[in-house]
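Exercise 7b. Backbone tokens:
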């Protein structure tokens, strides 16, 4: 009986060796094709990300609100249309609904341009020891101003902090 086990073990080892030898190249090709397919699908979905045509009301609303806008590009975010544009020395993003109603405008600003009460609010928050990466001012209807601070403690720990114009922390969202 022990001899029979040795024979079967030898056969199993040869069979496994044969399988590995013949199927390994096939598996490598399959993995490569799978990765290429996944990457190409991501590229195609980003290339053709615009699902709807930008309504004329929306483009006219941008021209009316920001007549000096240049290098305008549009994105359809399903619930709003986002226009990215340059004006003066700044880069902006304005959001409009499908009827052309303005929802908000965001502008990247420097830390020095940040109002003192926002700096004070950040310094008093639990994120005061985090690195300040980017700062944005957000104009909302009825002359409401908010500020979004992108902060990080490490490559993994990153947050978007949203402050009102009084320096009160409204939200702290995790970001990727």
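Sequence design result:
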């Amino acid at each position: 009986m022990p001899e029979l086990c040795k024979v079967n073990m030898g056969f199993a080892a040869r069979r496994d060796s044969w399988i590995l030898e013949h199927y390994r190249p096939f598996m490598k090709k399959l993995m490569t094709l799978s990765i290429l397919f996944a990457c190409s699908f991501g590229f195609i979905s980003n290339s053709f990300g615009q699902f709807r045509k930008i309504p004329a009301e929306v483009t006219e609303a941008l021209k009316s609100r920001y007549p000096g806008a240049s290098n305008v590009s549009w994105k359809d975010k399903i619930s709003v249309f986002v226009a990215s544009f340059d004006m003066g020395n700044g880069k902006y993003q304005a959001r409009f609904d499908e009827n052309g109603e303005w929802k908000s405008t965001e502008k990247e600003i420097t830390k020095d341009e940040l109002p003192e009460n926002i700096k004070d609010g950040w310094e008093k928050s639990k994120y005061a020891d985090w690195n300040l990466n980017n700062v944005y001012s957000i104009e909302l209807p009825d002359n409401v101003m908010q500020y979004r601070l992108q902060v990080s403690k490490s490559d993994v720990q990153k947050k978007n902090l949203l402050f009102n114009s009084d320096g009160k922390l409204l939200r702290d969202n995790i970001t990727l």
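Instructor comment: The chain has two domains: 1-49, 58-174. The beta strands are 70-76, 81-87, 90-96, 102-109, 131-140, 144-152, 158-164, 169-174.
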